[in-house]
Amino acid sequence: MSFSFSKTNLPKQLFINNEYVASNNSKKFSVYNPKDSSLVADDVALANEQDVDKAVAAAEKAFPLWRSIPTTERRDLLEKFASLIETHTNELAELSRITLGAPAMVGLWEVGLAKESFKYFAGLINKYPGESYPQDDGFLKIVRNEPLGVTAGIAAWNGPLVVACSKAAPALATGNCFILKPSEKTPFAALALGALIKEAGFPPGVFQVLSGDGSTGALLAAHMKIRKVSFTGSVLTGKRIQEAAAKSNLKRVTLELGGKSPAVVFDDAHLGNAVKWTVQGITSNTGQICVAASRVYVQEGIFDKFVEAYKKSFQEATKMVGDPEAQTTGIGPLVDEIQFKRVTGFIERGDKSSLVAGGKRIGKEGYFIEPTIFKNLPESAELVQQEVFGPVVVINTFKTEEEVVAWANDTEYGLAAGVFTQDIQRALRVASALEAGTVGINNITTVSIGAPFGGFKQSGYGRENSMEALEAYTNKKTILVTMKYD
Asked: Helices H, strands E: what count in the chain?
């Protein structure tokens, strides 16, 4: 099976048991191009219960062989798959771009991260140790890390490949079979992986892709034969998945949910560095990232100077809003009409007297919007408390360290944060006090594949990336060996 997909030859069938097949569901779903609202396709397969059962059965059949193959063979398969992703970088980025609207440079970066996920976890396959404990009680204790079985990943639309691969790679590396359900807003890059899965040499049933909407995800979350589901998306949907998992077979769940990430900028911060990171942290992917720096707290001594520099940088960023296909574009449209109405609704309900810049629609077609700044809103304001998931930031001033830590922690989210200061003691002190899964010092919105990633509070639980991801896809089995007979 050769890779032949492009924007003129879209993958629209399910990938089950190493073959592209039609869905048993006569209902299809449609996807649109956010740059002009044009229809991209109205016949994408929507997996139903029969399709899910078929994929699970194939995975169950494949699992005994897959878990038992030598680790070097499994490593080689993952590395070959990573190489194939790299070979088809441009095509995969294009397949994401036509319905996500992310600029070309963002798409290429995202595919690169997806490739790195598979390379990283391929390298860990034979480096994930078990444990042993002393035999002082007459038994040698050996602890093995064993795969769960059939697992599933439900990916978000804002990073179609990197999110998918951050789930699939550790699952496959530890000997699990994996079923991927991409978002119905951005399905094509994930569906195209089927051709690369087969070319890489994965056995049938080991790695499968089911397109569909929320109903498909619900079927995966409630399936009695799926042992683990990893989800990235909204808090509301995450709660539904957790509930379905509990009511079915108590399957393991990893949830990476929303964020309202605070950046705390002290008087002694390097101004240019703080502005660069915080602007980048809210404009990247048009603000449609879970770790977006959507709250910026600036100490009063540099507040006016910071806002002036931030606004100038924002205005430069706004000049780069445009057609995602253009190489000069830095910011694309919002993903669809639903997201556009959500973001503009937040802006319209905001206090206009606190509006510093932006807030208007750009052009008459598509879902383009000016990056938007509000300042000095009350901590109880909707724009301070709720995730917008768009290029909208609130810049508030503060006086003391104690005050800003309290404000930064005063939301139901806790995914990421940043501290900007030249005082290392203060930096470490504040980083420790912030309730977030990832805290940057003199940076923000940075995620490393080599370090655990996940949230506090309603930003989810469980961790992705690093060795922690391998633990999420394995069970610990204790074996006790009798060392002497009575």
From this structure: 15, 20
